[in-house]
Amino acid sequence: MNDAADHHWYPVGLLSDITTPRQTLLLGQDITVQGDGTGYQVINAAGQAMPTIQRFGHLWTSPGQPNRDLFTIPETDAPGRRLVDVGSVRVKCSPLRAVENFLDIAHFPFVHTDILGAEPHTEVARYQVDIREEVDEVWATKVKFFQPQAAKSAEGGITTEYMYRVPAPTCAVLYKTCPPRPGEWDVITLFVQPLTEEWCEVWPWMALYDDQSTMAEMISFQQLIFMQDRSILENQIPRKLPLDPGLEVPTQADMTSVAYRRWLKRIGYTYGAQLVAA
């Protein structure tokens, strides 16, 4: 097992769904997730209890001793936000590929046609990417893109502003224009459970200002978006995320991906990554 990977937090289930013991994988190792609505446990293959945290409606665990607390998202505590448990999707791809795809803006018009993007609005304008040393996170800001339907509650196309944040190797947070409340940000997250280096369980979660849509409608909209991504993810070659800059040729639109890969190399996180050409 990758030593760096042992010391991070990973989502392993929705708190609302953990009622009976469930067998799953984490970093290729068998674990059991169990709870009764009042307390939760994760047990490894040796029968030992693993550390747990309850946050963002999910149960989180780590195979080793985490090197820091699980990140927070202060915006999600604001009054009036609706917290949306989307569920999970199992995907045959590297957990790092799943995060990178979430950070990719250029595919919107081609994969999410007439929803998150549309031709001829395919150009990705220059934006800013930083690895913020003080928090050890990757951030992309000043991202703008035209979208025919930016959210379930949106009516008509708008130019949507984004901020992307990578607070952990297998997690990403998207802050985006909130159509019903200009000046506020909707929050959409991607929490990824690495089952193996080439399989993952993806747990989207949202904190939205939306007084019109039903919970089922918001969940269905987000699931539609992710299912459109799934076929792309499962057909990427190589399956693991290349960290060597010479293995894939980036464009200006890929600046966030380049920073993400550089950051992974810097922190020594290589589970689900390809380091050299095959």
From TrEMBL:
SUPFAM superfamilies (alphabetical): Bet v1-like
Annotated TM spans: none
Family matches, as InterPro entries: Cholesterol_7-desaturase, VanA_C_cat
Pfam families: VanA_C
GO molecular function, one term: dioxygenase activity
Protein name: Aromatic ring-hydroxylating dioxygenase subunit alpha
Record domain Vanillate O-demethylase oxygenase-like C-terminal catalytic: where: 91-266
Alphabetically ordered keywords of this record: Dioxygenase, Oxidoreductase
UniProt key word Metal-binding: no
The keyword Protease is assigned to this record: no
Organism of origin: Yoonia rhodophyticola
